Amino acid sequence: MLKVYNTRTRSKEEFTTLEGNNVRMYVCGPTVYDYPHIGNARSFAVFDTIRRYLEYKGYRVTYITNFTDIDDKMINRANEEGVSVSELATKFIAEYLTIAKQLNLKPATVNPRATEHMDDIIEMVELIIENGFGYEVDGDVYFNVPAFEMYGSLSRIPMDELSSGARVEVDDKKKDPRDFALWKAEKPGEPSWDSPWSKGRPGWHAECSVMGRHYLGLPFDIHGGGQDLIFPHHENEIAQSAAAYGIEVPVNYWLHNGFLTIDSEKMSKSEGNFSTAREVLDHYDNQAVRLYLATGQYRQPLDYNENAMNQAIQSLERIKNAVDTIKGRISILERIGSRESDADKKLAEASKRLRESFEKEMDDDFNTPSALAEIFTFIREINTLTKDVGGAAVLRESLAVLTELVGILGINLSDDTRISKEVGQTLETLRGTIEILLELREDARKSKDFAKADLIRDRLKQLGIEVADTKDGPTWKMS
Ligand code: AMP
Ligand code: ZN
């Protein structure tokens, strides 16, 4: 029986679905304004493993994870970089998809973007106002928190703490400091959409209410995200969905992953102590990174450091060596023929025991470190028994069980196409070299040496690198 810790009830509950065999699941995805860091990668990997385990248990999972492609961070970064918000989003969505591949995340059923759902968002805000939970001031729209009695049910933050304005933005336009923006009138230079209140854009929380409902219907089974999102993001999401659509419990199970620290320090982009997921994945074997991310139970904090990574590399080697041991024995038996022995029975029992104990640990709120420990117990058994096993079928079965179970943790034993450190570095060098050539070409153009500028462009083209001139300068892509 699967038990999951539900933030909504602060207890481990038996998992039951709302509708038969289907699990409808929404996970808050990245704000695509910067390179995802290794903490973000933890969140992505945690929910990928939860999804994979649910599928292993026989559920059909609809998995939605969004891209936040419009908010203050997007606008500020686009201005800093001198690009449009949509160019910024395109760049970092591509980056996320590359990381997702390296981390072996199963593709989502849909990756919706906030900007694709403006009509739905406006409709939800209209409903919230109509139902008496929202008000307009000078083109801005706010959620009227005191009107919504259940406010605070997820985060359980005392209301007086919120009223003091310590954890919420104080703004003269708001009737109550706890009120939050549903719609913001545009400021000069910001992207904006037409609405009944002003040309503007949605508040931060609106998109997840809308996209969850759009793709999954309300209520749905599981909503995931990092612990930092409990307040205000998810608290406000519940308030919006309940106020607009009259559904008191829009989500059954709220699951939140713990934070990743680096060398025991809180990760913070403003402190500049974060490692991007790309840096980590280019440096280490991608499967070892995924194994490392499974070494912590998802709700607990997890520290990223060199020692932890080295241990993960060794653990992965142990798994791969066990696979080689089994494969080696199978090929010997193919030559000399099968001859069953006591070891066959013992290995068959060990495989069965592994499956049972792995499931027991994962059924306990996805306890991946204990599930991994069970895998290593099995590997010790493989190492002692395999040389005496006489039947290839038993060996194949052991290999299949091992492959299937580590696969739930995101480790693909049949995949040897890892992007090595060397390949990663070569790609970085190539990228840098192209940038230098484009700078030289710009210099040539400025001094009206168009023959040289064209030569650089044509030679790059021969190498499969297409250069395009835009108003923001040249861009390039592999053709
Ligand atoms: P963001 O791009 O900031 O919206 O974050 C994407 C996801 O990563 C969210 O679910 C965050 O809660 C989660 N997250 C952010 N920082 C960390 C961290 N240091 N450790 C674990 N999860 C994180
Ligand atoms: Zn969200």
How would you summarize this macromolecular structure in one to three sentences?
With 479 residues, the chain is of the alpha/beta class. 49% of the residues lie in helices and 15% in strands. The protein has 3 domains: 16-283, Rossmann fold, CATH 3.40.50.620; 308-417, Anticodon-binding domain of a subclass of class I aminoacyl-tRNA synthetases (Four Helix Bundle (Hemerythrin (Met), subunit A), Up-down Bundle), CATH 1.20.120; 421-478, no CATH class.
Description:
The protein has 479 residues and is of the alpha/beta class. It has three domains: 16-283, Rossmann fold; 308-417, Four Helix Bundle (Hemerythrin (Met), subunit A) (Up-down Bundle); 421-478, no CATH class. Helices cover 49% and strands 15% of the residues. The chain is built from 15 helices and 15 strands. The strands form five sheets. The protein has a four-stranded parallel sheet with strand order 4-3-9-10, with helices on both faces. It has a four-stranded antiparallel sheet with strand order 5-6-7-8, covered by helices on one side. Strands 12-11-13 form a three-stranded mixed sheet. Helix 10 (306-336) packs parallel to helix 12 (368-385), helix 10 (306-336) packs antiparallel against helix 13 and helix 14 runs antiparallel to helix 15 (450-462). The radius of gyration is 26 Å and the shape is flat. 38% of the residues are buried. Bound molecules: adenosine monophosphate and zinc ion.
